[in-house]
Amino acid sequence: MERLRHVRRRQSGYRKVGANSDPSQSLELAVNTEDSSPQVMHIDEEDDEFEDETCSTASLKRRAGRQLPKKGVAVSYVQFAINEMRQNTCVYLLGFFSCFLVVFTVALLVSLLSHSPVVFMRLAELIRAETDLIVDAGDWTGHSFLNYTFITEVVDGVAEVNVSVDGALHARPSIAEEKYSYSTPRHWWSVKITGSGNCKRKDLDPYELGWKFLPTAEHHCHPERNPEDCFKSNCGSLRSANKLLVLDSEREERISLGREFPEQGKIPKGHCRISSDLSVYSGVHVGGILYVEIPISLLGDLWNSTIESYYGYVDEDLRHVNGTQSFPKPWLNTYIPFVVDTVFSSPEGKYPIGEERVVMIEYETLFEVMAENLHPDIEQPLRTTLGSMNPYHYASQVVFNLPPSRYDFYMSSNFDDTKFKVLEWTNGILYKLGFQSLNSHVPVLDSLSDFQWFTLFLGLILNIIIFILLFLSVLLIYSLMMVSVESKTFQLGILRMVGMKRREIVQLLLTQSFSYSVPSVILGLFFAFLGSIFVSVYFKSLTSMEIDVGLSATAVFAASFLGLLIPILGGILPIRNALAQSLRDCLDMDRNKTTAVEIVIDRSENDSLPAIPLLIGSSFVVFGFMIYYLLPLSLLSLNLTLLINMFVMLLILMLFGLVLLSINFQHIVEKLIVYGGLFWENAAVKDLVLKNLIAHRRRNRMTTIMYAISLAFIIFIVVTYDVQITSVVYENNKWHGTPLRVSSNGNWRNNEGGIMHALSNKKGYEDYLRNSSVVSDWAWISTSVTSMAAVVDITRITTIGHVFRHRNWMYGISPNVFSVCFPGFLYVNAYHDDIPMGIGQQLYSVDGSGGLIVGSLYVDNLGLSLDDEMLVEEWLLDKDTLATTKTGSRFFRHHVLAFLDSAAYFLFSKFPTQTRQDSLFAFPDLLELIDFGILSVDDIPLSVLHIEFVPDATKDQLDQVKRDLNKVGGEDPGASASVRDSRTNDEPIEKANIAMTFFFAFTIVLAMAISFFSLVASMFTNIHEQTKEIGILRSIGMPKFRLIRIYIYEAFTLVLSASTLGLVIGTLVGWTVSLQRVLFTQLPVPFRFPWLMFVMVFVTSTILAVFASWGPVTRLLRKQPVAILRS
Asked: Cα(108)–Cα(90) distance, rounded to whole angstroms?
């Protein structure tokens, strides 16, 4: 009671409460708290029990040792938390919104993480088409078609393939499985086309057959010499390198093949749909007539069976029946007129995006239109036989798609999991059909494999985001709890004085801490569900795929767990701090709690475990185990997920290590900012700002760490994502070499040793490019040596002693090829810098005669250096049989002119993982290697034309050049050329980029919001603790505006120093990520600092710093100095 009377004299006083007012006859104690609102405590005279209306009677132990029921204790803790909300609404809202943001973000991010592979699945679909499995007849079977009708019976469960003893295939009943029933037949053929506008006579009937095959009085032609001669004499040369897609529109719509394709529904007989580039190429638009040459030879076995069913016998060359009835070559072509219904600009997943000049016709009408357009001398019964055949018995390929909700198979950021699910499904189909007789392709899965590193990194980045946001929220709750505990030091001291035990103090503070999280978990999950609705709509507009609306069970569990974990983690240190103070210090209200100097005394006999050394030691043990065991395990097992997770953990450790290291330089940075940035202020203001920073360093440290981590994290994720997306773009540009290039569609040898499908219209291309105002230069690349000479099977380079060999592909190049191609990819390991020429030009110099350019791998692999002589080996085939000869090889002596680490279009590397590499020669030196009928440089077959444009060339100009080059290519007789555009993949990549940019912007806003909450809490507490100092400064005459400036400067210095530290940390970590990416991809991916993002974050942080200090200090300065001193 003596201590109680002491408290009464220092605070306010007691008053006796009459017996009529309370049956328990208690004393009432009014205690002034820091917010000047009296709190009332009741002293029960009979039970000697105290009651605080902020913390009710049930929360206190009876002084006699008895405790109230547990239900009453819980209610009292809740009442304490509710009163805390009312008295410190601002602080509570900061904590609530912090937990709310974490719950909302984690729930939404986990759902997004589960659906993020949809973006890359859509990207894969746009690149390779919306086809999960394609099967066709194996070349070794000797058949060209599959019986789609029989296939559907097998996979639908109506029948099952059964191999009998004699090897014949039979069908027997099977169990129906709907997951294999989504399929469609297709033909995908290369054809020649021309438009009706190219015909000399406009009165030609497109459906009349005579003028297409037979000579007339006006047009003399010789079809026996050239099957196309009659058609060509009337309508000009047919243009090659086009694709005919024969499809079943209804079946493809059922299996969702081409979901966003603009034209759905069946294509009428005799009509077609064409791509926009084909429309330009042929000059045919909607309503026009397009002639498509479909050779009978494409029908293969079908034509055999048709003739055999009509005549009874057919021999091997498909032109002679029964040895008497002859089918001349002109009879084996059809020139079918199609009316163009639609011109579409993009395949939208209908077929691979790289395919150009595509014609679509309906599957079920194919044989009918072919029969109607056969040679007029072919008898009508044979036409009827072909036209009446069931087209579904003859499919070049069959496309299978996964059942509805097919994206569930691709919903894993781990490519190995996705591959397992998809291949398990494909294996079921192939097992039913007989995998030994089929070729199979998985286009979407193959495309996703190209993005597996990207998707894996994205998933890990999302996990890092969740971890960082959790860490920031824990720091914020810690800061807010410290504010609450420090502001209630006296009240907690009273509770301890009247008998509340430490365990009950812990329960009381944890209840207050959970008052932040429980409501935030409920509301966070609710708003996350609403957000998932928006996300599903956005994803549908972006990917054209429906995703499940709502939160997954994993998302709800993770968000709830983290939401409830935050107050526990954030409350540990504040609770320890509250219990660590002595009772006298808690009840001493005269002394300022702000301490600029601290003295810590350690007792030698202290047997408690040291927390910091224990934590550091444990971290080193985990780190050592991870490097010593898990790293070799991931490499030996090829577990990319484990390997990348280790890299990410190392990055996180690096991030936090740099943050902790930077804290030691914080005071130096603060002094530089104060003395350098506030040069106009007088010394007194600067000194007060620095003293405030010193006095508040412990509390401000959390805010500094949060801002530093936030900014470093922002720079890290932006740089990491930029590196990932840039590497994809660079890979595409490296493969193309130039914005536009003309390539032959295959340059292989025929059996006579000639070259098929090389670019022969060199003069036509060069004449056009020379007259173009947007083309600055161009360069040629030959076909490979193995494609030029039929007798050369393999080319290798080897040392003089024949000790080491390495297979290479050998090409001839123009001297300007490296200046024409994208220059950023050219990395030279060694070359003759004393020769004043470019690397390609040195091949054509006197010193470069007999030289070649190889990859820098061979510096170590073959022990080569500049000018060292080496051998080029050609592995020869027998000229007559094209079988390997006994002698095997012939050799040519050359010397090394340059070693390259990388170059655009070509394959060079210094790492042995790049097993295929190129060797480059001058065209005259290449003649020595191909002396099989090629006698001059002009006769060397060319396969690639690279084109360089002027720097200010626009997109429209490039599109016009592309169209013109297609026309020039169409004039190349017998050529099969395509204009490759490096911008082809830009659109799907841009879609993925938009989605990820939106996501990262959302994350950045959340991180900065949480950091701002911490800044507000810190500045509010700093100003509140210095109330008396502010009152004294006002009493001695310091103007209000100067005081406001002092605290604004404090907040500004705090934010600017933390931002500077975060800038350095984020730059170092981001630079490390870019170095690793360059190592993995062997691409010159640059490190680009996100200056725009940094400036936006820095300016926003500075403005928020002003608001964080302006509100509390101006609110306090509205009072008179005397009132400030009293409060």
From this structure: 26
- pLDDT at site 745: 67
| Token output for 350 | 């209908």
* Residue matched to tokens 């350098």: 676
Question: Beta-carbon neighbour count of residue 783 at 10 Å?
Answer: 25
Picking from 193, 282, 288, 198, the residue whose alpha carbon sits closest to that of residue 235 is 198
Choice among 579-583, 842-846, 1099-1103 with the minimum mean pLDDT: 579-583
Three-class SS state of 349: coil
DSSP, collapsed to helix, strand or coil, labels residue 402 as: coil
How many Cβ atoms sit within 10 Å of the Cβ of residue 994?
13
Write the CB contacts of 645 (distance below 8 Å, at least 6 apart in sequence).
460
Q: Which residues contact 126 (CB under 8 A, 6 or more apart)?
A: 347, 348, 349, 353, 987, 988
| Contact predicate 765/779, CB 8 Å | no
Helix (H, G, I), strand (E, B) or coil at 673: helix
Long-range CB pairs of 195-199 (<8 Å, 24+ gap) are: 195/282, 195/283, 195/284, 195/288, 195/289, 195/290, 195/291, 196/235, 196/284, 196/288, 196/289, 196/290, 196/291, 196/337, 197/283, 197/284, 197/288, 198/235, 198/236, 198/282, 198/283, 199/234, 199/235, 199/236
Instruction: State how far the alpha carbon of 361 is from the alpha carbons of 206, 352, 365, 723, in Å.
Output: 17, 17, 8, 43
**pLDDT attached to residue 271:** 94
How high is the pLDDT of residue 755?
A: 47
Candidates 492, 495, 474; CA nearest to 484 is 492
Q: Which helix (H) or strand (E) holds 115?
A: helix 89-115
Please say whether the beta carbons of 220 and 229 come within 8 A: no
Spatial CA neighbour of 565 closest among 516, 501, 620, 531: 516
For β-strands 271-275 and 335-344, DSSP reports them as: parallel
3-class secondary structure, 828: strand
> Is the distance from CB of 549 to CB of 115 less than 8 angstroms?
no
CA distance 702 to 1017: 11
pLDDT at site 1023: 81
User: For residue 362, what pLDDT is reported?
Assistant: 94
Contact between 132 and 406 under an 8 Å Cβ cutoff? The reply is: yes
Token digits of residue 434: 């007989």
Do the beta carbons of residue 51 and residue 42 sit within 8 Å? yes
SS (H, E, C) 1077-1121: HHHHHCCCCCCCCCHHHHHHHHHHHHHHHHHHHHHHHHHHHCCCH
Q: For the chain, how are helix, strand and coil distributed in percent, rounded to 5? A: 55, 15, 30
Q: What distance in Å separates the CA atoms of residue 507 and residue 74, rounded to the nearest whole number?
A: 9
Question: Following DSSP, what letter does each residue of 262-299 receive, concatenated?
Answer: S--SPPPTTEEEEEHHHHHHHT--TT-EEEEE--GGGG
Pairwise CA distance, residues 320 & 327, whole Å: 6
Euclidean distance between CA atoms 66 and 59, whole angstroms: 12
Least Cα distance to 970 among 188, 198, 189, 187 occurs for 198
Q: Residues near 1119 by Cβ (< 8 Å), separated by ≥ 6?
A: 1127
**Which of these, 563, 548, 680, lies nearest to 95 by C-alpha position?**
563
Give the residue from 557, 554, 562, 564 showing the smallest Cα distance to 470.
Answer: 562
Q: What is the pLDDT of residue 311?
A: 56
If one counts every other C-beta atom within 10 angstroms of the C-beta of residue 671, the result is: 15
Report the C-alpha dihedral over residues 964, 966, 972, 978, rounded to 10 degrees: 140
Euclidean distance between CA atoms 589 and 32, whole angstroms: 11
Asked if 897 contacts 843 with a C-beta cutoff of 8 angstroms, the reply is yes
Q: Is residue 256 over pLDDT 80?
A: yes
